[in-house]
């Protein structure tokens, strides 16, 4: 992981400075909300992916910050809208924006950040970048809507679950990778390879997230343990448990999730079963398969520093403990 | 107005068909919300402005629908978010989307429509269009946030009022006009002239809207009479009334608006004073001055059909009764 850490240490300050400067130029209330969400941390995975693929495809200029940071702002905008819509209280251990600034400010600041991201992407005179950003937002919004529909009518259907995590998480990471390739003027085939890397890393990232939800204590993640289950979300650890269990038990649990009638005791019981059956670890094993797929997408690339970092970044997804 | 009506009759079906087809390709719940807002009417002023300026600057191709309709979708997306944030019950006489589909679906469908609009604008390989759309959304979101701040701390400051109506309404109409010029490959000076026309028409449009709020019965506008006053919004008719009245009365009214303590009787009294003082008509007279400014921006243009229509469109703003 040495290359990865060194690369992030070198590049993160520039990305954070650029985000701060863009946020400073926003007006009044939008600026406050933007600075709150940008300042609440985050791993800056999306901008780093854009930079890494731009460099991997030979982009030599230093004007990559606007498009890289556009990806972070799109992500921030979706967090603002989601946290409000989910009635979330915390984001990265800090009070969620809508509880600090109010719903109207938060929704409209999210819109303004979406617009700022598009404007930043349009600065290069490269309309492929604008098209990619637009698609990324669209797919993320649709993925979130599908997640809501799924939570109202939960099932054990793995295909639907995969579609949702691809939409709500993996597509924007794919978009970040494609934007890097497009900035470098890569061929469509090269951009597709970058996109597949991002898609697979994104899936692995969300699988690990869903595994962590069942595994890690609140203090590390900043989220309550078993939060997904309590919110009625069906994710892979639960699907794996129910695939191994008896049908009657699964249907009763699905009904309880649908009707939001799961008792505290039932909830603790399910959490214990997931722990005993190691379904969180099994979900991580599934994630590991996507990480391998992601790394295979890098095969045709020159062995520059950035390609080594991209391989380590894919592996790093599996090491997350929060 | 003959040219205007003939032009709209000829072009509106194509614009509506295109909007319908784009909406049909959206997925599930997003499609339903999109079709609800698109199908609820609307004058399609923004897409028509884009088309008219594209033609006025000599654009001969027939592929203008994507960028023209992008402007309508941006407008629709802002209506979805605004109506939810305003707790509006009606939009164009129909039940507001958030009351039909729920808040989450409405907010996320708004995000998806913003993204679709950006994607449609990016189809031309002309990055100026993407930049203009991004700016248009940004300025509209900021204008709305400023309106909220103003409603919490209302004043009689005309400059602030003008800034708000420019942000929340005129900038997107300016954007529509600029997009038409940019599509036609107009010079920066030509695009600026188109933009100034749109800005002035947009200001006039909002002034007439604010005048109508004090003048027209619910059945025609689909909105309650004096709705702005009841919501605590300070608009030009009220500013004009208070500029003519005594300072103590104005301050008491501002305080009541700020504290949302305006009684039904006080409200009726203010409405009667606005009627007696013809402040709604005086607001329309102000609008007429902006219409003249808008028409002056067309002076350098060839006298093609579209320029005649643009002149009539500016005048038409003043004839609105709903």
Explained architecture:
The structure is a homodimer of 322-residue chains. Chain A is built from 16 helices and 2 strands. Chain A has helices spanning 2-24, 28-38, 45-56, 65-85, 97-101, 103-121, 127-152, 158-183, 188-215, 218-221, 227-230, 236-244, 247-258, 264-276, 279-296, 305-319, and strands at 90-91, 94-95. The longest helix of chain A has 28 residues, at 188-215. The mean pLDDT of chain A is 90. Chain A has a single domain, classed as Farnesyl Diphosphate Synthase. In chain A, 76% of the residues lie in helices and 1% in strands. Chain A starts with a helix and ends with a helix. By secondary structure, chain A is mainly α. The first copy, chain A, is globular. In chain A, strands 1-2 form a two-stranded antiparallel sheet.
